[in-house]
Amino acid sequence: MRRLTSVICLLIFFLIVSEPSAQSSESTLRIFGYFQNSLQHWTTFEDRQKQNSFSLQQLNLFFQRDLSRKWTALINFEFLNNFSSIRQWGTANLEEAWVRYRLNEKFSLKLGLQIPIFNNLNEINNRTPLLPYIIRPLVYETSFGEFLPLEEFVPARAFAQVYGFFPSGKAKFDYAVYIGNSANINDDRERGQTGVDTTTNFLVGGRLGIRYEELKLGISTTYEKRNEFEGIAKDIGRSPSELQGLPGTRLGGDLSYNFANLSFESEFITAKIDAGIPELELDIDFYYVTLGYHFTEELFIYGSYWVTKSHFKQLIPGNESEEDEEIFSPNIGASYNLNDRIRLKAQFARVKSNDFLISQDTLIKELVKEEDNFTVFAVAVSVVY
Q1: The whole model's pTM is what?
Q2: pLDDT tens per residue across span 130-162
Q3: How far is residue 164's CA from residue 174's CA, in Å, rounded to a whole number?
């Protein structure tokens, strides 16, 4: 079924591309996109041997049309990790399909599937040629979405958003408010329609920010109610109703500043599911800092530091466990603009992972500490087409 769905999606957009009006000089339909190919070398980590691999890391294909003077529509398909449906490689996603009404700079309304504004990078993380990174700050690296819970850190989808900015002298005050489905999405065909929210809850979120000359500062947040822990209610001695509608929150902040040839950007994200009971705790944190310098108009060198932390506590009578994980990723990199459409990149990262597990049964309490260190070398080319 997955293969059939992918084939259908491919056929649909190839039909769109092949439509004569799409390539006509009289048409207002714009077809454009980005892709990034990389070569990465990973040294030994966990139970994996060292490896080298080429990869079409990400490709985004956009269709955009101005429907009238104030209305614009856009569709965004995303393909990851050498996508091939017949080989079951990578993933293909319909990332966006929205229509936007723009009254003026102070008010825009966007309706339909969209990536909401959250911190600085969330909405623009797919613009690989515009970013200096090969591997982006961890929670934005969509090619890792097959094994990392990226959507726990940042909201991936909304369906209605109001945003804009108010100028005040040299300053601009940004705002965004949006609504979408909660995390309680059906992915089981035996339970009915997939991709829809199974509750009456919504995700609500927004961002407030200020821009002053080369300074950009903002704070973001989301709120939703989540039901995924109902299944462990009996294990921890609680009723399922006590684990329904648990408040899930994200809080983020971003700061960026450009001075002459110097560039600075940073973000923090903290996410938590508040169970309100001592038997269950879950919270995660992430932050990154990047400092870069434009040696020439084409050449940019940067150093970056990323930290990811997670805490999970589950008290099952007779088998209690508590796990803390930390990932530290200092890295350096360079990017070179070969021309307006091609950007060459290199990146080196040293990753350190600490995993602390406290497990206690009725007989013994055990503390396990695991450390893992590995290195990543990467080169890439990013293209606007």
Answers
A1: 0.89
A2: 999 999 999 999 999 999 999 999 999 999 999
A3: 6
